[in-house]
CHAT domain-containing protein (Suillus luteus UH-Slu-Lm8-n1), 78 residues
Amino acid sequence: LAAGLQFAGFKSVVGTLWEVDDAVAKHVVEAFYKYMFHPKEEGVMDCTKAAWALNRATHSVKTKVPLEQRMVFVHIGV
């Protein structure tokens, strides 16, 4: 699905390699958007920060989410 979105023209896509539990996705997605919009003063989404934000998000939830469930998240693109 993520690769399909990139082929459709999206510059940056975050997806999963396989199915992930909803509770796990909730933790990672909340952390991802926290970093994606950092600093809050800017409030602008910059697609070039997506890989960094995903990396920070997966590291920040490591006490809540085991490695085998964090490693399914991938970034494709810019």
